[in-house]
Design brief:
Strand content of chain B: 5-15%
Helix content of chain B: 55-70%
Structural class of chain A: alpha+beta
Shape of chain B: rod-shaped
Oligomer: heterodimer
CATH superfamily of chain A: Oxidoreductase, molybdopterin-binding domain
Structural class of chain B: alpha/beta
Low-confidence stretches of chain A: 13-21
Strand content of chain A: 25-35%
CATH class of chain A: Alpha Beta
Amino acid sequence: MQIRVVLTSLALSAICFPIGAFALDQPKGEVVLTVSAHDLGHPNINGTAQFDLPMLEALASRTAEMETPWTEGKVKFSGPLLRSILEAAGAHGSQLKVIALNDYSANVPMEDAAKLDTILATRINGDTMSVRDKGPLFLIYPFDKDASLFNEKYFSRSVWQIKTIEVSE
Amino acid sequence: MTFSARSSGDIIRKASKATVVLQGFAVMLLVGLIFLFTDISQRYLSFQDGVRENALWSVYQLDREARRLHEALHVMLAERDYSTVAVKALVTRYDILYSRINILEKTSFERKFKLDSSVERHISEIRSVVLGKVGFFDALNARGTFEPEKSEAVDDDLEKLVSATESLLVYTNSNVSSERADAREALLALQLKSGGLVILLVGCVVVLIFTLRRQLKSVRLAGLSLEMISNELNEAYLDAEAGNRAKSQFMATMGHEVRTPLNAILGTAELLELSTLTPSVASGMQTIRRSGHALLEVINEILDFAKIEHGKLDIEMRPVDLSSVLSTTIEMVRDRATEQGNQIALVVPQRFKTPAVSTDPTRLRQVLLNLLSNAIKFTSNGTITLCVRELETPQNSILRFEISDTGIGIDEDGLGRLFQPFSQVDASISRKYGGTGLGLTICKQIVEAMMGRIGVESAKGQGSTFWFEIPVVAAAVPVPPANTVERGPSGTLPMLNVLLVEDNLVNQQVAAGFLNHLGQKVTIVSDGCEAVEAVARQPFDLILMDMQMPRMDGIEATRLIRDAEKSKPQTPIIAMTANASDDDRRLCAEAGMSGFQSKPVSLQQLRGIIEALDPSEPEAMNIVGQALDIDNSFATRRAEIVEALGEETFDELLSSFFDDATTLLQGLHEAMAANDYRSADHLLHTIKGAASSVGLQQIADTSQQLRSGPVSKNGIEKLSETVDEFRQRLAA
């Protein structure tokens, strides 16, 4: 486990390194996500990496249709991959603490970002999500790709109304 | 024993029943287990299906968000902080609460939670409150200005909302808890159910094993008792066999004992019939003779049957002239047939393809006589036909004999009982016609021993046809003419030069008398040495040789004679002995004797021996003198001797026997006194031979008895007494 985490971090930093030279752009609109870490690679505001919606939607993304316990029928989620956000922020660690607007938080292991195509969904069926619709960001596991993820363990990690991600070692 | 076998059989049967029941039970249990397993797996599937969001958690979140909204509004009103940031935060709080309502409505929770009506009621209540505030918060968000008056009312509503969400939370908690308890209970029940089934199954298996063990044990016990039973049966069989053997032995002895006096009766009757009798006495005599013959036949049949039952039916194959056997057999029954007013006919081919066959003539004649006698017995004023045919099959040639009569016939029931021992067609038959009912059984046994088969075709009142078929092989050697019983007077016999070797004076006189009567030239010598000398001096046509003689016995003398005549044709030598045992026969044959005659020799037998000798064909001397199987009684012997030699000669012989006997008994006493058992034995032998020669069978038997054990004084006294008794009786 330990070794795997180290390897993952190494791999991530190896990917991050070439773009490490770029500092993250300043958010132009309303900030929707803040990534904080002890030693962030590309901070843009006060040592944290802050994203507005266009910044997030510019990152490598995924769109997938799936059923979830919180939606009726099949819905289409789209948004940046969690790992691409962490790359952009230059964050590395083994543990993510995903915090929602209502201060609900869930611990997500870094593996879920590195190995799974986990996304921070910005749109549902092509529309952005308001807070009333569990927006603006919703952590969506690839339930469509892997049925074994469809259980309470991953449900509890599927945080919505996300505002902050804290990366720790 | 039998009881234990039966009881172990019962145990096995019971155990098998128990096993069947247990097997059925085990199958049922297995089915139960299968059902249980499918139940469990279905529950598991639905469990998988029921991967749902946690309702309690969502309700808790709703309650929390409601409280936080209420708290935020309350704080704003209390602190009068109507800043844009605070307003924005308030709106966000509302948005979050709003999203929670959606969550509650759209999320799939545990099924029971959704279906619960009070949950639904609670949610719709909460929903109406939350959605009712949309306008207020939307306006707040749009204008950005806070109106405390309006907000007071909202604050009150939110307070009510909080109590509603709280009660939903409490309700949900208890609901979820009870559901969890239910689930646990169901799981427990399931576990108990499967546990019970497993225990039952295990119990079943244990009982099965126990039953099997018990079954195995009783099978072993049953095997043991069966073995014991079979041993007992074997013993019982051996006992029965021994009993049967004793019975056969007894029958043989009794038969012998009965035949001896019967011969005397028959002989006397025949003798008396020769003299002049009044018609009534003559018919009485005839009745006596016939009844005697019938009795003799019955006894012979019983003895034959005893022998057959004892497994002693011997078939002696030898070349037989078929025509002669058939004609003599017919002649033997012709008289009886005529007495019953029956015609008797022999139907045979002109020439048999195999005139001489290898078979047992005695047995063949026995079967034919039996069937012919039966036919005659059950037919009166009819015709009896003996028809003989030769059948050819690819394997061998078969002789078929058919004896048909026109008698009373046999119905179907009766046919089934034929050939069974001691059975006659019906009881009235045995009353009317007599007989042992053994004849056909004996015939069947004989025919089967000859590898043939026997059968009958008959219908009541239409006569019967008994038939039998025996496989035969053609005989290479033509047989000498059979000894004929019905031959004319002695004139037809060839005159032979006969050497009689006999040490006993009485025997010498009897044999010489018979031979003279038959017109033979007799030379008498009294021991082996003299015989050898006599043969050296002149050739003889026939030598009658006694076996036991002083100086040189018959065996030794025969050897010497045979040695001497190596270049010459062999002289027929017929042995004469009182003890016709198989060993004696073998010794005689080994010494080179041509035939064998048991003593006392009858006139008829001597005639047969001489007839069998044809001087022109000395090689054909294949004489096997038939041992007399009946004991000559004094009367028949006397009749015989009187017929041949006259009454005077017989009286002379008798007195010379008694004279001799006195001398011999004297010698016997002396020998006993000197403990010379050898001489004593020899003297006893001589007495025996002489006594049987004149028909004093009782004296002969007593002498023989003395010889068979250690000679005692008492025994000799008894012999002397017997001799004296006869002497007095005959002198009278």
